[in-house]
Amino acid sequence: MAVAVIMEFAGATLEQYDQIIGKMGLTPGGPGPAGALGHWVAATDDGILVTDLWQTKELYDAFANEQIGPFSAEAGIPGPPKVTYLDAHNYFTPGAGA
Known about the structure:
- The protein is an alpha+beta fold.
- It has a single domain (3-87), classed as Alpha-Beta Plaits (2-Layer Sandwich), CATH 3.30.70.
- It has helices at 14-24, 57-74; strands spanning 3-10, 36-44, 47-54, 82-87.
- It has a 4-stranded antiparallel beta sheet with strand order 2-3-1-4.
- The longest helix has 18 residues, at 57-74.
- This is ABM domain-containing protein.
């Protein structure tokens, strides 16, 4: 079952996020990592909010352990994010012409 993952990174900046994405070899608007179905990020009053949709929680957890955690530490993010998992009832894929 698809899982929505909400990550709240207190004290993080969009510049740090951009560093992490670069270390992952990902580009804005480009394809995501294997197992990811969707992703977006926004600045908040106290850091950044990242929301993902993954095919399974296990795929997300493996990616988080291998890349998100280590690259976040390298970028100087002050600590691990607050993570919320939700079972996704439905999701959409890119529409026609996308």
